[in-house]
Specification:
about 230 residues, mainly alpha, Four Helix Bundle (Hemerythrin (Met), subunit A), two-stranded antiparallel ribbon, phosphotransferase activity, for other substituted phosphate groups, transferase, membrane
Length: about 230
C-alpha cells in the first residue's frame, strides 16, 4: 500500500474520522453532537504534532507525508466541517454562500502557506522560539463551540449574525500576517480544560437536542440555492 503507516499519524486520522462523523450529525440536525465532535477533532490536532515528534528515526519522506496529510485532514476538519455547521445553522443565501466560500478559501491559503514554511523550517526565530504566522486553523475548533453557546442567550437572528462574524473574522485572521507563539504544555492543558468546560455547559444549557431534530430533506437543502 502507498503511504506511511505508523503511530505518528493515528491522531490525525482519528481527527478526520471524528469530523466526517460530525458532518453526518450536523446534516441530521444533531448540532450538539456535531460541535462536540468538532472540538474533539481540535483536541486531536493539538497533540498529533507532539506525538509525531517523538519518533526520531523518521525518513524525510515520512516527515513530509506527515505534514501534508495533517494539512489535508485539516481542510476537512476545520475548513469544510465548520462551514457546513454554519450553513445548516442559518448562514444561507448569496451573502452566506459568499462568506462560507471566503472562509474556505482563506483556510486553504493558510494551510498551503503553513506547509511551505514548515517544509522550509522557517517558523523558528533566531532565539529558537516557535511561532505561527496567522491564526492556526485549529482555532475554529475552539471558536465555534464558544459561539454556539451564545444561541442560548440571544435571539436566533443575533445568533446567525454571530456566525457570519465568526466566519469572517476567523477567516481573515487565517491570512493576516502576525506572529502567534505556539502554545506551551501548560497552555495546552488550559485549553483542554476550557474546551471541556465549554462543552459540558453547552450540553447542559443550549437548546439544540442531540437526537430529536429530524434530518432535513436533500431537496430542502438545495432549495436555498434557487
Amino acid at each position: 500500500m502507498i503511504g506511511f503507516y505508523d503511530y505518528t499519524v493515528i491522531l490525525t486520522y482519528v481527527s478526520l474520522a471524528s469530523s466526517v462523523i460530525g458532518m453526518t450529525q450536523a446534516i441530521h440536525g444533531r448540532f450538539k453532537a456535531a460541535v462536540v465532535l468538532l472540538a474533539f477533532s481540535g483536541l486531536c490536532d493539538m497533540f498529533d504534532g507532539k506525538i509525531a515528534r517523538t519518533k526520531k528515526n523518521r525518513s524525510e519522506n515520512a516527515k513530509a507525508f506527515g505534514i501534508q496529510i495533517d494539512s489535508l485532514c485539516d481542510v476537512v476538519c476545520f475548513g469544510a466541517f465548520p462551514a457546513l455547521i454554519c450553513y445548516l445553522l442559518g448562514v444561507r443565501g448569496f451573502l452566506g454562500m459568499t462568506v462560507i466560500a471566503l472562509y474556505c478559501v482563506a483556510s486553504v491559503i493558510r494551510l498551503a502557506f503553513f506547509n511551505v514554511m514548515e517544509m522550509n523550517n522557517a517558523l523558528i526565530t533566531e532565539e529558537g522560539e516557535k511561532f505561527y504566522r496567522g491564526l492556526p486553523i485549529t482555532s475554529m475548533a475552539v471558536a465555534l463551540p464558544l459561539v454556539f453557546m451564545i444561541q442560548f442567550f440571544v435571539p436566533d437572528r443575533v445568533f446567525v449574525v454571530c456566525l457570519y462574524l465568526l466566519l469572517l473574522v476567523v477567516g481573515l485572521l487565517f491570512i493576516v500576517d502576525f506572529r502567534f507563539r505556539k502554545p506551551s504544555n501548560l497552555t495546552l492543558a488550559f485549553l483542554v480544560s476550557a474546551i471541556t468546560a465549554a462543552l459540558v455547559l453547552m450540553l447542559l444549557y443550549t437548546r439544540y437536542p442531540i437526537h430529536i431534530r429530524r434530518a432535513p430533506m436533500i431537496s430542502q437543502i438545495f432549495k436555498s440555492f434557487r
